[in-house]
Amino acid sequence: MGNLDGKCAIVTGAGRAGRGIGRSIALALASAGADVAVSDVVAENAEGVAREVAEKTGRRTIAVVGSVAEADAVQALFDRVMQEWGRVDILVNNAGITKDDLLVRMSEEAWDAVLNVNLRGAFLCTRAAAKIMLRQRSGRIVNMASVMGIVGNRGQANYAASKGGLIALTKSTAKELGSRGITCNAVAPGFIETVMTDALPQELRDQMKKQVPLERLGSPDDVANVVSFLCSDAAAYVTGQVISVDGGLFM
C-alpha cells in the first residue's frame, strides 16, 4: 500500500463503530501515514472513531460533526481542517443512507433524503475540496458508490439513482480536475459484512454468498484497502474509474 505520510484526509460518514466501512477507511489511511478528519452527523460516533484511529495509529485526528447535505456544515468541515492542518490532500465521500421502498410506494421525502445525502453531499464536499486541491495542484478524491449504482436494485430506486449519479459525478470531476494533478475515482462495494448485514437472517446471508464467485461476503477492510491504494502515489495514473469490490458478483 502506498505511503501517505504528510497527507491530510477527510472521510465523511466515518463515525460508525464496529464494522463500518468509513471507520475502516479512516484506519487504513491513518495506518498508511495520513492525518484523518472523521466526519459524521453523530458527535459521539465521530469522536469515538477519531479516538480509536489516533490510539491505534498514532496519527493526528479530529472529529467534525455535521450533515454533508448542508452547505454550511460542509464549509465548516473544510474550514476546520484547513485551520488545523492547512491542507486537504484526500477526500473520501463515504457518507450515505438508505430509505428503501418499492418505487410506486416511495415517498418524495424518502427520495429527497437519500439523494441529498448520497449525491448532493458528495457534490458539496467535492466542490469544497476542489477549491483547495486546485491551489495545491494535487489531490485524491474517492467516491463510495455501489454495485447497485451500476445494475440497479428492486426497492432501492433512490439509492441506486444516487450511486449512479455519483459515478457520473466521479467521471466529470476526473475530467475537470485532472490537469491539476487531482484524481477522482469511485469504489463500488458489493455485499459487505457490516452492522446492517449482521441483522439479516442467516438464510438470506447464505443466499447472498452463493451469488458471489469468491463465496463469501466482503469485509470493510476489503473496501478500505482499495480506497487507500487509490489515495496513494501508486495510483497516480488512475482516474475516472469505477472499481467494483464485490468478489466477482457483477462482472
SSE ordering: EHEHEHEHEHHEHHHE
Report the radius of gyration as a whole number of Å.
Answer: 17 Å
Distance between the ends: 25 Å
Which consecutive residue ranges, at least 5 long each, have pLDDT under 50?
A: none
Estimate the helix proportion, in percent. 40-55%
Number of strands: 7
Which percent range describes the beta-strand content? 15-25%
Biggest sheet: strands side by side, in what order? 3-2-1-4-5-6-7
Derived from helix and strand composition plus strand pairing, the structural class reads alpha/beta
Integer average pLDDT? 95
Shape: globular
- Main sheet? 7 strands, parallel
Q: What is the count of helical runs?
A: 9
Features:
single chain, 251 residues, alpha/beta, 7-stranded parallel beta sheet, 9 helices, 7 strands
Can you give a write-up of this model?
- The chain has a seven-stranded parallel β-sheet, with helices on both faces.
- Strand 2 (35-40), helix 2 and strand 3 form a beta-alpha-beta unit.
- It has nine helices and seven strands, in the order E-H-E-H-E-H-E-H-E-H-H-E-H-H-H-E.
- It has 251 residues and is an alpha/beta fold.
- The radius of gyration is 17 Å and the shape is globular.
- The chain has helices at residues 21-31, 43-57, 71-85, 108-136, 148-151, 157-177, 195-198, 202-210, 220-230, and strands at residues 8-12, 35-40, 61-65, 90-93, 139-144, 182-189, 242-245.
Topology, element by element:
Layout: E1 8-12, H1 21-31, E2 35-40, H2 43-57, E3 61-65, H3 71-85, E4 90-93, H4 108-136, E5 139-144, H5 148-151, H6 157-177, E6 182-189, H7 195-198, H8 202-210, H9 220-230, E7 242-245
Parallel strand pairs: 1-2, 1-4, 2-3, 4-5, 5-6, 6-7
Helix pairs in contact: 1-2, 1-9, 3-4, 4-6
